[in-house]
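User: Sequence in, structure out. Go.
Assistant: Echoing your sequence, followed by the structure tokens.
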Amino acid sequence: MTRNNRILIAAGGVVAVLLIAFYFASPVLALHSLVDAAKAGDRVALERKVDFPAVRESLKAQLKTAMTRKFEEDPELRDNPFAAFGHLLMASVVDKAVDSFATPEAIANMVATNEPPKTVSTAPGGPVLEPAQPKAKSETKVDYHYEGLDHFRVSYADVRDGERLDLVLKRHGIFGWRLVRIELPGLAKG
């Protein structure tokens, strides 16, 4: 084997190792880019990094699952025919509420602060989410892990109360990732 062939093989090996490393590091890099865009309020970058319809659908599913569980666990609600009717109406209310509250600004705030919105206030222009304040890094434990090759989960757990906010990213192309799901603390996975 000639010297040039050894150099080409070594260079090819280095390039392959770098591509593999970047392939597996790409979701963490995408997450940091998403958080930076959220903190900067860069709406255009957020629209590229977040699949808003998928996030809204996941929030609707979580809320409906939590409502159904609550309905099934409460004996007074379970046996009341009017409660069943209210449960059906509540599903459409959840859809409309999520559509109006899961705005790019609200999602950006959740990503930037690792916290869901704390309260909803009513203003003359309609309901407004009061954004959460970011926690100190010492109060939050972050866990990253793959869920298959195309899904990546980031969990932000509050050290004091154990509440978790999970972000799920889905591969978009070879090295790209988009946020497709936000799992709120205390809600069932839907």
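User: And one key feature?
Assistant: Helices lie at 3-40, 43-49, 52-73, 75-78, 81-101, 104-113.
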